[in-house]
């Protein structure tokens, strides 16, 4: 049986990465925050009594499901709103635009020059931008494997697919990122 302080510590340790993953997926910071909060609540309510070693996998699975649920709701809303827009006067348009991804905030290393810090920041922004351009499943596989550092089996379980699919998604993501970053002048 886990204590409340253990659960709080776990949630605090995963919140920033989970938020970034959700932002990458839904490309809306407010929606991403809601998704992460709902995920944390679901974990605490339904699985808080489980062993702390089980929480990382459970959390990732709940987060993946919450993101998919968000996309399903958006599809229904767009369908309904599309029908309502048929009733609007011609020329009326929705002027809303999606917010850009928040840039990765990193502190400069000691002894790092301003040019090095700028170069590092530019590289991180390029990587983040290219990650945002990946198809959803490739981005999800890539982030779970290389950011969350889940193994192949854990990633497959979290994504609800086979290990072979995870390998394919990761390989395609790596290839697409390498090609896009090379075109932008970013080298390893």
Produce a short descriptive summary.
The protein is an all-alpha fold and 188 residues long. Helices cover 71% and strands 0% of the residues. The protein contains seven helices and no strands.
Description:
The chain has 188 residues and is mostly helical. Helices cover 71% and strands 0% of the residues. The chain is built from seven helices and no strands. It has helices spanning 4-26, 29-47, 55-85, 114-133, 136-147, 152-159, 163-183. The longest helix has 31 residues, at 55-85. The model is unreliable at 80-108 (pLDDT under 50).
Sheet/helix structural class: mainly alpha
What is the terminal separation in angstroms? 45 Å
Report the strand count: 0
Q: Please work out how many helical segments DSSP would assign.
A: 7
Q: What is the mean predicted local confidence, pLDDT?
A: 81
Radius of gyration: 19 Å
Taking pLDDT < 50 over at least 5 consecutive residues as the criterion, the unreliable ranges are 80-108
The main pleated sheet reads as: none
User: Into which percentage range does the β-strand content fall?
Assistant: under 5%
- The sequence of SSEs as H and E is HHHHHHH
What global shape is seen? globular
Please give the share of residues in helix: over 70%
């Amino acid at each position: 049986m886990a204590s409340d302080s253990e659960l709080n510590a776990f949630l605090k340790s995963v919140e920033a990465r989970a938020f970034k993953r959700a932002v990458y997926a839904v490309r809306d910071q407010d929606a991403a925050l809601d998704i992460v909060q709902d995920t944390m609540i679901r974990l605490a309510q339904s699985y808080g009594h489980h062993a702390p070693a089980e929480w990382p996998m459970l959390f990732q699975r709940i987060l993946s499901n919450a993101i998919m649920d968000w996309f399903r709701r958006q599809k229904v809303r767009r369908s309904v709103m599309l029908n309502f827009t048929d009733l609007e006067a011609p020329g009326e348009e929705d002027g809303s635009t999606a917010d850009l991804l928040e840039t990765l905030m990193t502190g400069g290393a000691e002894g790092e020059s301003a040019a090095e810090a700028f170069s590092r920041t530019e590289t991180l922004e390029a990587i983040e931008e290219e990650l945002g351009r990946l198809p959803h499943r490739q981005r999800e596989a890539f982030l779970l494997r290389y950011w969350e550092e889940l193994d192949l089996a854990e990633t497959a379980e979290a994504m609800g697919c086979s290990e072979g699919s995870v390998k394919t998604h990761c390989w395609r993501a790596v290839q697409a990122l390498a090609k896009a970053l090379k075109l932008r002048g970013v080298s390893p």
